[in-house]
Amino acid sequence: MDKTALRFLEALIDAPSPSGFETEVQEVVRRRMLGFTKDVETDVHGNVIGRLNRGAPFRLMLAGHCDEIGFLVQHVSDEGFLYIQPVGGIDLAIMPGRRVLVHTKKGRLLGVVGKKPIHLMTPEERKKVPKAHELWVDVGAKDKKEAKKRGVDTGDMVTVAEGLARLGKDIAVSRAFDDKIGAFIVTEVLGRLSKRKGFTGVEVASVSTVQEEIGLRGARTSAYGIEPHVGVAVDVGFASDQPGADKKIVGDIKLGGGPILHKGPNINPMVGKLLAEVATKKKIPHQMKAEARATGTDANVIQITRAGVAAGLVGVPNRYMHTPVEMISLKDAENCIRLLVEFAAALKPGMDFTPRP
Question: What is the pTM of this model?
């Protein structure tokens, strides 16, 4: 992975993007896509769509969501403490004692999620997981007036103050790899296809989708507008090579083992087969996972858009999902890019993805 792509990934991670508040990160995506194609648009929902070969007879949609879990300021107390509410599925048990950033109209404000000292807790309190409305952010303000003077307002975004860090050559940790790594991958696929000679028969729409964490909303609206023949979502998937993970439930998924491919009712069998065949032919390492029901990814709503779309799902193995220290292999991300570039190149106008015996 080249240095320019890595700088793009770092910029994606740095930009705050709780669901519904993705404009800053989408500007990062938009600038990167414009380096590959002039055909870039932002729809009314906030999805950013970069296209190649608009009007070609076969349409491929690639979707990676850019939104992250986070918080919004709900109330500023007279004492200057900020009470917050979660956006998306946050593990509240790990939040007390965390540093956070409050994104105000005057800029970023560092704060901490306060916590009663363990010395002062009763045995019952030590066992308790806080409720969302019991969490507060302390920005060091002496009272409500000072907090307001420093720019804090109801509805301000709050994100965990954790950026991208490297653990060795290929392993990286950060908040929000779910699913900024997906938005990164679909954007980089667009870039590589833009330089591929002879790639003209397939329209590719790479979409950085919004509001996935609160109901797969951006993929639903963008897929309706694009009306693809094939739609592939790119998201993170649970790695099982960590303590406490049960391979009988999660499957045998390893960091560094390559992209996760899937079989199940949310996956068009012809799309799934072609992804696996391309990976094997191009010697791209990959792993297989069974999904017995509709997945909790953009592939879910892409599949049932309009009269139906031949849907696929490619995953990046991820440890510690929905924590501030999500862990991935950059090698897996690179192999996802390689796989989707070759998959797109294997598509031809007139291909039929109707399931048959």
Answer: 0.97
